[in-house]
Amino acid sequence: KQDVNGRKRPSYKATVVLGEKPTSKVVSPSNANGSGLVQNEIYPSILFHGPKFQGIKSVKISGDRLEAQCTIPSGTPAQPLALDLIFQSALILAKKNRGIASLPSNAEQIKFYKTITSDTEDFVITMSKEGGSNSDVVWKLEYSMQDVKGTVYNEGRVSIVLNDTLKY
């Protein structure tokens, strides 16, 4: 599309569909199996985000499944960071499973149920890769974001693009 001065501007499209509230999904992170990483291993080696966007405290990975323990750092806009943490989690899963870098590609669907605020206690992102092969260039991932009591904030499907020419 063009703006009033005739310059081309990107345009975006979203469809809002009101749905039923999901049932609680209680997650017991301490019982999660698989390899683990903590924050000081994640951000200097896998992700490059600055302190205000370092909301992942730890992750557990088992095959194509990830559980991330998250928090909102003080002074950070809560909702934008929470949504970014979904993609950060996906990038960690790809790096640990394939050993290569990836970039966010698409938020195919996000169902919002409850807003995350700066007062939100720690929360959990669970994520799993949808079918396909680990060698695929595009990964589609289902995720859920909930508090430790099982209240779901949002859930949906995102995709990332893996590329072995990207450098960290």
TrEMBL record:
Domain of life according to the entry: Eukaryota
Organism: Prorocentrum micans (Red tide dinoflagellate)
InterPro entries assigned to the protein according to its UniProt record, in alphabetical order: PKS_dehydratase_sf, PKS_DH_C
Domain Polyketide synthase dehydratase residue range list: 42-115
Protein name: Polyketide synthase dehydratase domain-containing protein
